Amino acid sequence: MYTMRPAEFEYHQPRSLDEAISLLGDVDDSRPLAGGHSLLPMMKLRLAMPAALVDLGRIPGLDEISSSNGGLRIGAMATHAAVAGSEVAIGIAPVIPETAAAIGDLQVRNCGTIGGSVAHADPGADYPTVLKALGATITATGKNGEREIAADDFFRGIFETALEPGELVTSVTVPATPAGTGAAYVKHRHPASGYTIVGAAALVEIEGGNATSARLTIGGVTSPPVHATAAADAVKGGPGSAEAIAAAAEKVSEAIPEASGDAYASGEYRTHLAKVLAARALTKAFERAG
Ligand SMILES: Cc1cc2nc3c(=O)[nH]c(=O)nc-3n(C[C@H](O)[C@H](O)[C@H](O)COP(=O)(O)OP(=O)(O)OC[C@H]3O[C@@H](n4cnc5c(N)ncnc54)[C@H](O)[C@@H]3O)c2cc1C
Q1: Which of 49, 120, 171 for a ligand 1 pocket mutation test, highest count of atoms within 8 Å of Cβ?
Q2: Is the CB of residue 31 below 6 angstroms from any atom belonging to ligand 1?
Q3: Which of 68, 144, 264, 288 has fewest C-beta within 10 Å?
Q4: What is the pLDDT of residues 232-278, one digit of tens each?
Q5: Is residue 199 within 6 Å of ligand 1 at its C-beta?
Q6: Has residue 99 got a pLDDT over 60?
Q7: Which protein residue has the closest C-alpha to ligand 1 atom 17?
């Protein structure tokens, strides 16, 4: 039976990362709490019933946004609103703050965090698609220290990631998008929830007017998001004409032979959206690269 009250749980407020990691290791059935915008609704519906919550909100520095070796490092507790408004992020990889600014509504953006979003790995989430397209890295920290996980390896399926029990996402690092490189993310969202039904992220590098590399990633049609390699390859070597992009977008379906459908949108409709959005994302990425 559904209820709007979560089952009983202990609540811990660690003041350091070490303390949080110890708690997650020592307290049975404990779970990290970030913005709570995915976990708390699940607890209220009793889809999740952790015995204890370890609130990451009081750990200093976990929300920092900074440049790192020319790339962008975003602390796990950075909210979507903080990322959206970060001058550092806008300067290094503007598609990231753009993505953050279009997540949910103001309340969701003020509470939801990048760490929570990637750890939750919702098939309707925006960050996973963009992070895969940009070749980002997720830093996970546990009792054995830190490890770097490529976004390609991190996202494994619906609500499934490469995180080991007791490990926390501590930051996300995105390589810079230098001059001559254009990145774009476009999506079709559900009109009521705002969640993405399908999203497409494109990254294009141009030299002498033609694309020397291209990457296209589609989210919401499969889980995890998938690289549409044949479509991206099809625009390589050219200037990104409307005809070439339209032909490339047709190849998106090669990457999604088994599109998943649900009550919101059939697999067939999602595949259609993926092609339309792929063309838009590639067009925008070419414009930005030029
Ligand atoms: C109405 C609504 C609309 C939304 N629309 C969108 C949308 O358009 N696009 C989109 O991408 N998202 C959307 N979201 C989801 C939103 O972005 C959430 O904030 C996000 O999915 C989870 O982040 P959180 O900080 O709230 O995490 P929480 O809810 O606190 O945690 C989510 C899960 O991640 C785990 N976790 C949290 N932080 C960490 C960490 N650092 N390390 C390891 N595990 C961790 C928790 O234990 C939990 O299992 C929406 C949510 C709502 C309620």
Answers
A1: 120
A2: yes
A3: 144
A4: 999 999 999 999 999 999 999 999 988 888 888 999 999 999 999 99
A5: no
A6: yes
A7: 112
